[in-house]
Amino acid sequence: MITTEQTIRTFLEFFRERGHELTPGESLVPPPGDPVLFTTSGMHPLTPYLAGRPHPLGRRLTNLQRCLRTTDLDEVGDDTHLTVFEMLGSWSLGDYEGPQSLRWGHELLCDGFGIDRERLHVTVFGGDEHVGPDHESWDTWDELGVPVEPTVHENWWSNGPTGLCGPDSEIFVWTGLDSPRGTPTIDDRWVEVWNHVMMRYVRHSDGSLEPLTRPGVDTGLGLERLVRILQDKQSVFEIDLFQPWSTTLPRLWGSLDESSTRLLSDHMRSSIVVLGDGIVPSTSGRGHVLRRLIRRTLTTLWRDDPTRTLSDLPIEPIEHTLEHFRQERHPHDVRTTLLDEERRFGRLLQRGRQMLSRNRFRRSLSEDDYRYLYDTHGLPRDLVMYLNAEDFSK
């Protein structure tokens, strides 16, 4: 069975053999001046070069980038979504065009990783009132014998309301136990693993599209999703990368259900990576996201047994996570921060219980109540709702 590390090496070596230079993976923290809280994709650090600036390593690049997306927090726990994940990427900065990228993608998945061609399906941009269908991608997939489903909004990539944009083609792999059926938009057993963006335009504030003088190609492949498929697992939480968590958590807190185990694995792992990149818990910005991850961990942990504590967690999963993400922060420092935050949250819960026991709050709370509890006593809405649910369960 191919491991996560072997998957990474196979991908990077494939593109290096085809003239791509390896760029170092960046921190989750974007450079100063970037308005985004976290790096959300492999192309994020390369945005200036996709827009036309020469890259010091040339016009063909590849790398592995760690990413964090808060937009998927409520989906964490299903078979595919993670808060912190890794993306394998390849880029053409005005060198080769989309069809070449798609052919290489097909070659790597089928010949390099051994995925059955019959398990592939793709989507392409079918055109709208501004831009016609992406015939180049469509014709390429037809030549390769891969079924195509055209869409509109799902296959138009943009970097926000203005900036770089263009049609994309997404590659899906069938994960059902029976023969492939349906299409990616109607059957969620088709799992997207690799997106190839044809970076062709800049959208201006008036909505107009200006063709790039040097069109490029940006691809991003979800590492954990691919490994799930290659290892024939039901979810990303069953791959080898999560083994330190899947073996440790049931031993520590055996009565956890599967949904709670998945959320704890994801949130603890993600918190460690965020701490590993030098972020500390706080009331705003990146630190607030970290604090939210830790507190969601704790509320899940304490839901069935308030005696559980992060101090039960051995150092090995922390060491494994920091080592995999190539982070230099000492595991014991990370563990100390997690325990400090647990104590802080415990004190806040105690204060919250005392506050909510007052007659004023022994009823349905209004927006003014929530605002008062937060502004005056530092009790956020989700915490108040958690305490109310806790009280109701008694």
Provide the β-strand percentage band. 15-25%
Taking the alpha carbons of the first and last residues, their distance comes to 48 Å
Helical fraction equals: 25-40%
- Shape category: globular
- Number of separate domains: 2
CATH class of the largest domain: Alpha Beta
- Which fold name fills CATH's third level, the topology of the largest domain? BirA Bifunctional Protein, domain 2
CATH architecture level-2 label of the largest domain: 2-Layer Sandwich
Give the radius of gyration.
Answer: 23 Å
- The SSE string, one letter per element, is HEHEEHEHEEEEEHHHHHHHH
Count, helices? 12
Low-confidence stretches: none
State the total count of DSSP E strands: 9
Tell me the major beta sheet: 9 strands, mixed
Q: Please name the fourth-level CATH homologous superfamily of the largest domain.
A: Bira Bifunctional Protein, Domain 2
Q: Could you say which structural class the secondary elements and strand pairing correspond to?
A: alpha+beta
**pLDDT average, as an integer?**
93
Q: List the quaternary state of the chains.
A: single chain
Write the layout of secondary structure elements.
Elements lengths: L3 H13 L4 E2 L24 H4 L9 E9 L15 E9 L5 H15 L7 E6 L9 H10 L3 E4 L4 E3 L4 E12 L15 E14 L5 E14 H8 L12 H10 L5 H19 L8 H18 L13 H9 L6 H26 L10 H11 L3 H13 L1
Parallel strand pairs: 1-2, 4-5
Antiparallel strand pairs: 2-3, 3-9, 4-7, 6-7, 7-8, 8-9
Helix pairs in contact: 3-4, 7-8, 7-9, 7-10, 8-10, 10-12
